[in-house]
Amino acid sequence: MGIISVFIEFLEKLGGKTIEVTEAPIRKIPRREMSIKDRLELLKQMREQIEKEKEEEEERIIEEAIEWREKVITKPLSERIAEGVLKYFRGPVESLSRSIKGLELDLYRANISMSKEKYVALMLGVGIIAGIISFVLSIVIFLPWDISILIGMAGFILGFMYMRFYPKILWRRRVEDVEKALPYVLRHMASLLSAGVGIAEAMVSVAKSDYGVISEEFNLIIQDMHKGASFEDALSRFEERMASDSVTKVVKQILRAIKFGGDLADILYKMADEFAFEYRIKLMDYVQKINGIAFVYMFMSVVMPTLLIVAILAGSLLSKRLIIPISGLAVLMLLAFPLLSTIIVVMIKRAEPR
Questions:
Q1: How far is CA 80 from CA 76, 85, 87, 94, 113, in A?
Q2: What DSSP designation does 102 have?
Q3: Of 55, 60, 122, 190, which one has the greatest count of Cβ atoms within 10 A?
Q4: What b-and-e string marks burial along 151-170, b requiring 16 or more CB atoms within 10 Å of the CB?
Q5: What is the per-residue pLDDT for 168?
Q6: Residue 126: in which H helix or E strand, if any?
Q7: Residue 307 pLDDT more than 90?
Q8: What's the CA gap between 76 and 83, in Å, rounded?
């Protein structure tokens, strides 16, 4: 029993010492009541800190919104339309893109940096927008619903087909711009070659100059050479993109002069004079043709609508009723005659010499 009592006494002393050690830091902390002024000051600091954090959060949200808006605005509208269509119609777009042949080559020649699938999505998007606009315009001019639906479908088809042939149209425009600028570019290169500058440096000078499309094409040639293509291969790709007799002639003359030797500057000068002379001949023929087309345009856009209105009024007076409904007359005046005028303008533009 004596041993047990001694052990219990030891445990009691150990427990008391432990409690004393744990309570020691608490006893050292001074206890004081906060005054009302201190509490108000603390509440004021907490409120200021919360407002500051709230302002920082609002500024962060505004900065993110501005950054997102800048990205959306800087992105071309065509990209946004294509991405929107791909988001909801990826399956049909991919199936349709596989069925359209030759589109990749058209995009390559037109220098359109867009994948085939994305461009097909753009074709569908433009077709849908054109169809909706055509349908709404038909409703606005009070056409029947069935005719409005047909006009909307026609608008979709026209918009879709226009975008299908737009790369070819753009490629032809690029070829025309290149052929128009060829005499000036060839003289530019010939003057540099006469001064002792190399052919590659002369092409770099053209790429940095403001010759329009041909400066872009020369820049692509330089990029191809930087990527490892030979000078001959880069020029051949330029010839393939243009598919122009004039460009082919220039490329072959340059490659022949480099391979077999010869005064390349003199050759370029002669080709520049030849292209300039051919363009002047074409321009004279164009002026003669445009006189007849201009007469047709004036007749279709001014004389014919006036004669039609007079004929409708005369027929309506004789029959004592309007022989053509208002909706039909609106279609003629707002769609038919402007369309004919547009076709004539396009013919005049297409007849312009390269």
A1: 7, 9, 10, 18, 14
A2: S
A3: 122
A4: bbeebbeebbeebbebbeeb
A5: 93
A6: helix 116-140
A7: no
A8: 11
Six-digit token pair at 108? 């390559």
User: Is the pLDDT higher at 333 or at 276?
Assistant: 276
Overall pTM > 0.85: no
Tokens of 189: 């290169």
Considering only CA atoms, give the Rg of the chain. Answer: 40
Block residue for tokens 């940095």: 208
Locus of tokens 């946004």 = 80
What single string gives the DSSP state of each residue in 299-339?
Answer: IIIIIHHHHHHHHHHHHHHHHTS-SS-HHHHHHIIIIIHHH
Q: Could you tell me which of 112, 105, 111, 354 has the C-alpha nearest to residue 215?
A: 111
- More confident call, 303 vs 196: 196
Identity of the amino acid at 102: G
- How far are the Cα atoms of 66, 77, 173, 233, 238 from residue 248, in angstroms, in the given order? 49, 35, 17, 13, 9
Q: Indicate the SS3 state at residue 168.
A: helix
Cα separation, 34 vs 38, in Å, equals 6
Cα(232)–Cα(238) distance, integer angstroms: 10
